[in-house]
Amino acid sequence: MNKLYIIKIGGNVLDDEPSLKKFLKDFASIQAPKILIHGGGKIATKLGDQLGIQSNYVKGRRVTDAETLDLVTMVYGGLVNKQIVAQLQEWHCNAMGVTGADGNLIKAVKRPVGETDFGFVGDITTDSVNSTLLYFLLKQNVIPIFAPLTHANGTMLNTNADTIASVLAISLSKHFDVRLIFCFEKTGVLQDVKDEKSVITNLNKSTYLKLLKEGSFHDGILPKLENAFNAIESGVKEVLIGEHTNLLANTSYETKGTLITLS
Amino acid sequence: MNKLYIIKIGGNVLDDEPSLKKFLKDFASIQAPKILIHGGGKIATKLGDQLGIQSNYVKGRRVTDAETLDLVTMVYGGLVNKQIVAQLQEWHCNAMGVTGADGNLIKAVKRPVGETDFGFVGDITTDSVNSTLLYFLLKQNVIPIFAPLTHANGTMLNTNADTIASVLAISLSKHFDVRLIFCFEKTGVLQDVKDEKSVITNLNKSTYLKLLKEGSFHDGILPKLENAFNAIESGVKEVLIGEHTNLLANTSYETKGTLITLS
């Protein structure tokens, strides 16, 4: 099967113009099918403040009310997404900016109201993905650039970018050998959180379980690792956790982050 | 050749929620390949006011400075476009929201600075269109929904929605029998501007020239007619000028607007 890179970037890249430019130039130069998923960054909060839209959090998680939904639809689906697309086009990468609503690429279920009403938030599974259309787009050398938005019942929904990346990776594993890359602020998963040089370069399930038992991992990395092993066990060939500045290494054989595989 | 409907709507539909909903339901029900192009409506101006972005006009035409470009990219390319797409998905129309940057569908040239610097405005011709990708999307039953934005040299550009509709129609005439429909605020081209019932139902080139000579047309309709005959003479099979409420009639044989043909 052909290789497919599914790459997720967050606020630390998006909020810094030179970093973003360098990253996009690297992304454009990857000579393989690829998909980018971006988060929102600080601009949504900044614009929300200007418009007097209050951020509302319950137990540390943002609630997406109608005003906030319009805000993230504008900023993530419009401004951030199209600026990325225009720049990639300049680097001869035929990017196409999409949300889950476009081409019904990711259909969500609005999160049911439990103890908390999170508002316009979409939950997704691998069944949510229109992998047929994605496969056809990739075959046409069109590079999908996902904003973290999905849809259900005629409305847009806010959806976590990490989850979108995982779900896409699992769903497209039937067509490709997928390497799912999470760009974050550290070089990789660290053996010692205070030592940037202590990157665990290869991590398989048995080593993970052993280190987990020994309490070696920093709390912050645990959800990412759970997410990564979930993807691996659902058919994704490799998950890589690393820094956005090392994208070109991390899409080659000489990876600089943490490469996670089943065995 | 198969029929293709290319339909342009403006602010009068977009700014009125019930009208838009009815229009989109009608649009979704058209059983043929189709493309929608939307303008912006009042929401960009309203949001610009809230953000303190001043509208700047030279000789009655808006100048797109960097702040205004961000505003229209957010509002046209994000909010308006994705709300339309989400609603169409609800009516089982597999809409995909795009700008000219996405998939390099319409590559523009930034308008050269002459007497006036219009800022981030894109000029386009039929050579600007990636008709291969559009044709491919339509073959997959994907319905492109265009925001009035294009791109060049790594940046988004503001582009007139009527022009985008015409250029798409001309460019796709090599693959389809195109009917280009301009939805506007009147039932059609009127023989007497004060009488809504005086719609000219069929207008060909020779009748047009005769009526033009007699001074029959209201000034406001002249640019639309010039635009229409330009499209007709460049390969578009039919241009229809009519009201958005009559969309279903105007995509059938019993048109209620003005159907413009070469002969």
Your description of this structure?
The structure is a homodimer of 263-residue chains. By secondary structure, the first copy, chain A, is of the alpha/beta class. The first copy, chain A, has one domain: Acetylglutamate kinase-like (Carbamate kinase), CATH 3.40.1160.10. In chain A, strands 5-8-2-1-11-13-14-12 form an 8-stranded mixed β-sheet, with helices on both faces. A two-stranded antiparallel ribbon of chain A has the order 3-4. A two-stranded antiparallel ribbon of chain A has the order 6-7. The first copy, chain A, is built from 9 helices and 14 strands. Chain A binds chain B through residues 47, 50-51, 70, 73-79, 81-83, 85-87, 89-90, 94-99, 101-104, 107, 133, 136, 140, 142, 149, 151, 153-156, and chain B through 47, 50-51, 70, 73-79, 81-83, 85-87, 89-90, 94-99, 101-104, 107, 133, 136, 140, 142, 149, 151, 153-156.
Question: What's the layout of helices and strands?
Answer:
Two copies of one chain form a homodimer.
Chain A: E1 3-9, H1 11-14, H2 17-29, E2 34-38, H3 43-50, E3 57-58, E4 61-62, H4 66-90, E5 95-98, E6 109-110, E7 122-123, H5 131-139, E8 143-146, E9 149-152, E10 155-158, H6 161-172, E11 177-184, E12 202-204, H7 205-213, H8 222-233, E13 238-243, H9 247-250, E14 258-261
Parallel strand pairs in A: 1-2, 1-11, 2-8, 5-8, 11-13, 12-14
Antiparallel strand pairs in A: 3-4, 6-7, 9-10, 13-14
